[in-house]
Specification:
The protein has 197 residues and is mostly helical. It has a domain of 132 residues: Tetracycline Repressor, domain 2 (Orthogonal Bundle). Helices cover 72% and strands 0% of the residues. Helix 5 packs parallel to helix 9 and helix 9 packs antiparallel against helix 10. The radius of gyration is 19 Å and the shape is globular. The relative contact order is 0.11. This is HTH tetR-type domain-containing protein. InterPro entries: Homeodomain-like_sf (IPR009057), HTH_TetR (IPR001647), Tet_transcr_reg_TetR-rel_C_sf (IPR036271), YfiR_C (IPR041612). Keywords: DNA-binding, Transcription, Transcription regulation.
Length: 197
């Protein structure tokens, strides 16, 4: 595919992301995406066959982006504390940003019976994310920056707190102190010296 085709696919995914964040997964149609992108139906179908295919592409790109970020920083031996602070700061912002949250769409998409049995299950997304986080936590323990903790249990605390607040942010207004309190407790749990920067 040429550069023009790649640009068109990026446009489709950007516009579809906004629609999925606004309406959830079930209420977005290919017609909605055509209208938002100003592409003809043929132009859209040249790149994607369904809203499911587009949604999976968005999730894949988001997961790959986070995985690359973690891998590059660990490979460059960036201090674990610095990686943790960067990610948790972003998570704080995302937890209260209901306009750009895919939480409802993710729930709708992955809770369908066909997705539960597919290779693209939410379990696969969970495991991929767990691998990234546990690698960071083990790295922090090895460098002496993090306390000796159960990496998998801490990951569960992080992911379910983060996703829970994101889900609630679609349903009610979330005060900034909630994500700040969660990230503060994660830092206290992980860091040997939470006050230091």
């Amino acid at each position: 595919m040429g550069a023009k085709g790649e640009k068109t696919k990026q446009l489709i995914c950007q516009c579809a992301f906004c629609l999925f964040a606004e309406k959830g997964f079930k209420d977005v149609t290919m017609k909605d995406i055509c209208e938002r992108t100003k592409l003809s139906r043929g132009g859209l179908y040249r790149h994607y066959e369904s809203t499911s295919q587009i949604f999976l592409e968005i999730v894949k790109v988001l997961m790959a982006s986070q995985q690359n970020e973690f891998e590059e920083k660990l490979k460059a031996k960036v201090p674990a504390r610095e990686i943790l602070y960067d990610v948790l700061e972003r998570y704080e912002n995302e937890m209260t940003d209901s306009e750009h949250s895919l939480s409802i769409a993710i729930y709708e998409f992955f809770s369908s019976p066909s997705m539960a049995k597919s290779n693209n299950s939410i379990r696969q997304q969970y495991e991929t994310s767990k691998d990234m986080w546990t690698a960071l936590i083990r790295y922090g323990i090895q460098t002496g920056e993090f306390s000796s903790v159960d990496p998998e249990a801490v990951y569960d605390l992080i992911v379910f707190s983060y996703q829970g607040v994101r889900m609630y942010s679609k349903l009610m207004e979330i005060d900034d102190c909630i994500p700040k309190g969660i990230t503060s407790q994660i830092k206290t749990l992980l860091l040997k010296d939470p006050a230091g920067c």
